[in-house]
Amino acid sequence: MSAPIIEFKNVKKCFGETVIFSDFNFKVEENEIVSIIGPSGSGKSTLLRILMTLEGIDGGYINVAGESLWHMPWQGQYVPANSKHLHKMRNHLGMVFQHFNLFPHMTVKRNITEAPMRVKGVSRAEAEEFADKLLQLVGLADKADSYPNDLSGGQKQRVGIARALAMKPSILLLDEITSALDPELVDEVLDVIRNLVKEESFTMLLVTHEMYFAREISDRVCFFDKGAIVEEGEPEAIFTQPKEERTKAFLNAYIGQ
Amino acid sequence: MNGFHWDWAFTWEVFPMILTAAKVTLLATLLGSIFAIVMGLVFALLRRSNSRTLRISIYWVVEFIRSTPLLVQIFFLYYVMPEFGISMSPLATGVFALGLHYGAYLSEVFRSGIDGIEKGQWEAARALNLTIVDTYKDIVLPQAIRPMIPATGNYIIAMFKETPQLSAITLLEMLQMAKIIGSENFRYLEPFTLVGILYLVFSLLAAYGIHQVERRFPKEGFSLK
Amino acid sequence: MEFGEIVSVLLQGAVVTIQIVAMALPLAVLMAFSFGLIRLYAPAPFKQIAIVYIEFFRGTSALIQLYWIYFVLPFFGITIDAMTAAVVALGLNIGSYGTEVVRGAIQSVPKGQYEASIALNFTSSQRLWRIIMPQALVNMIPPFGNLAIELVKATSLVSLITIGDLTFKAKMLADTTLQVGEIFGVVLLFYFVMAQFLVFFIRRLETHLSKGLGRGGLHS
Ligand SMILES: Nc1ncnc2c1ncn2[C@@H]1O[C@H](COP(=O)(O)OP(=O)(O)OP(=O)(O)O)[C@@H](O)[C@H]1O
Ligand SMILES: [Mg+2]
């Protein structure tokens, strides 16, 4: 069996006095799709943000693709990573944000080609060709020259997905990518993800409040509460026969809606 | 021969003179502020008047005052007022100019402060049948004052820092004193540096003071008188 | 004196005023960007230097800075002509206020923009110059416009170190003729027109830039 592509070992994370993770352990296998569900404030976003290097950690280790994410070897010891190491590690990861965070001063196409060209040194022709393909995939081929502010929320998020894919990350992080959208726009975005995983294999870590989506797409569902995994398992097991009281209460609250 | 060195004896000799002149600077700032606040209120209220012509004229008056140099306005008052038979002391001219100039700036602060009061408050005042004067005095101003403190304070500090321009009409404030001392002794280093430091100290103190006033000010406003 | 003659003397002064603005403005913008960025991103000792510069020039007054540079620097063996003193003093003074404009505009770019640019693995300088700065520039235009007007107004101070600008000519004419009302009226009008011209120019620039930068709105 190969080593997990993501591994958290005794990770500690605090915001000032508030402890989010005290001793967190977690693994994701290559090409596994893991959904994270749980109440607000339980640390779901923080988990993804730590992986994307948007937040540091206060203890423990994280491995990504066999290398330490937040530490690097130096004179036989592990020391906090410098920006060069982080730059290297980020190549494995891509993220789609709840609030899209598209660059408003660039066209849709520029949003998608800028990073491959500037960061990876891909030629313009090649970057644009790939961008066209991605736009096709997310169904926005006709919007290449629009600016983000002229798009609907669902369209913006589909560009967000295309932009992340353009860097060809091996791990994709999705943080509540539909919760800023009007209900009728949710499915057009989720369909893109559905198609994506049908065509290619991805390691994907997604935080979501769309339970039906988590159930249909995931290999594994983790229920989070207060910075710890309370229960995890195959989606069918979690959604039909939760063992823990807290999981039951959380899922009941959803069904009740 | 030229002094790269700082002459402490000379410093101590001129320091009291500059402090005396500082009183004039502070007096001009104080009187200028009072006048500016009054003018600011007048402009702000006129810009809310029912007459469109009046509102537009006041807008351009304020715009004109704000976009022309204080120094030229000082000269204007100093040279032109006597033409109309009004002769004022340099201090009075200076206070007049500072008040007018900063009154124009403050009117914008007051206007947006008053505009910040919810519509419901005006309607409630009307429902209670309050007169317009009582509405302003009892309802609007008490609520509007706190948010206006920082901007008003900053403009008063800005005014303070422009008082050296009154030396141009021979008012014996700090800079004028430093200039006189400098030209009599052929040594500008100490007097000008002292004046600079005093301005820095006073404006830092004032910024701290304004912060304190704002902090102490009751959040829910207070009733006038 | 003929009214036409007065106006022509004043016009000579106006040319000098515009020359000073044209030289001091680039200096102010340069100071604003360099020290604004140092203040935000540079390591400690440089940051301290920037803070000293900013606090010093904002905390004392422009006229004192002008006098200090013109009258005191010669004591240190640095003799500069009045024009240079004027440009340096006004450029540094307005520049110190500009640092706060640059800082504020950069900080007002939504945090999500930084995060997206980290997630896409841009280097820190690419983040600043390709993602953050183009958006911050749009926010800077109106406050920089106001500072440009403040600069035009502040140029009148140079008349006090014997530079023949608009204000200097006005005072000279006022001392020699009796038509003080006309003279200062025309001078005030000159300054007003210059300011209005700047306002117009800034509005154009703002609409132009925000169009090019994604239709003005910055939230996507
Ligand atoms: N930058 C920060 N500074 C201080 N506290 C923070 C910060 N970011 C997150 N937190 C706190 O950490 C806790 C976990 O936050 P996180 O965003 O990970 O929750 P979440 O599970 O994603 O919740 P939600 O479902 O609402 O998105 C919350 O209590 C939050 O207030
Ligand atoms: Mg979250």
In what range is the share of β-strand residues of chain A?
25-35%
Main beta-sheet annotation of chain B? none
- The domain count of chain B comes to 1
Q: Termini distance of chain A?
A: 42 Å
What oligomeric state do these chains adopt? heterotrimer
Q: Give the low-pLDDT segments of chain A.
A: none
Q: What is the number of strand segments of chain A?
A: 12
Average predicted local confidence, pLDDT of chain A:
93
Associated small molecules? adenosine-5'-triphosphate, magnesium ion
The most extensive interface between chains reads:
B-C, 38 and 40 residues
- CATH domain class of chain B: Mainly Alpha
Q: What is the helix tally of chain B?
A: 8
Order of helices and strands of chain B: HHHHHHHH
Tell me the radius of gyration of chain A: 19 Å
> Under the CATH scheme, which architecture of chain B would be assigned?
Orthogonal Bundle
Description:
Chain C: This is Amino acid ABC transporter membrane protein 1, PAAT family. Chain C: It is found in: Cell inner membrane; Cell membrane. Chain C: The chain crosses the membrane at residues 6-38, 50-69, 75-94, 183-202. Chain C: One of its GO terms (biological process) is amino acid transport. Chain C: Keywords: Amino-acid transport, Cell membrane, Membrane, Transmembrane, Transmembrane helix, Transport. The complex is a heterotrimer of chains A (257), B (225) and C (220). Chain A is an alpha/beta fold and 257 residues long. Chain A is 38% helix and 26% strand. Chain A has helices at 44-51, 83-90, 108-120, 124-137, 153-165, 183-199, 211-217, 235-240, 245-256, and strands at residues 6-15, 18-28, 33-37, 59-64, 67-68, 71-74, 77-80, 93-96, 171-175, 203-207, 220-225, 228-233. Chain A has a six-stranded mixed sheet with strand order 8-9-10-3-11-12, sandwiched between helices. A four-stranded antiparallel sheet of chain A has the order 2-1-4-5, with no helix packed on it. A two-stranded antiparallel ribbon of chain A has the order 6-7. Chain B has 225 residues and is an all-alpha fold. Chain B has one domain: MetI-like fold (Orthogonal Bundle), CATH 1.10.3720.10. The longest helix of chain B is centred in the N-terminal third of the chain and has 39 residues, at 8-46. Chain B is globular. Chain C is an all-alpha fold and 220 residues long. Chain C has a domain at 17-163: MetI-like (MetI-like fold). In chain C, 80% of the residues lie in helices and 0% in strands. Chain C has helices at 3-41, 44-59, 62-72, 82-107, 111-119, 124-154, 166-176, 180-212. In chain C, helix 6 packs antiparallel against helix 8. The chains are: A alpha/beta (257), B mainly alpha (225), C mainly alpha (220). Chains in contact: A-C, B-C. The interface between B and C is large, with 38 and 40 residues. The site of magnesium ion has 3 residues of chain A, from helix 1.
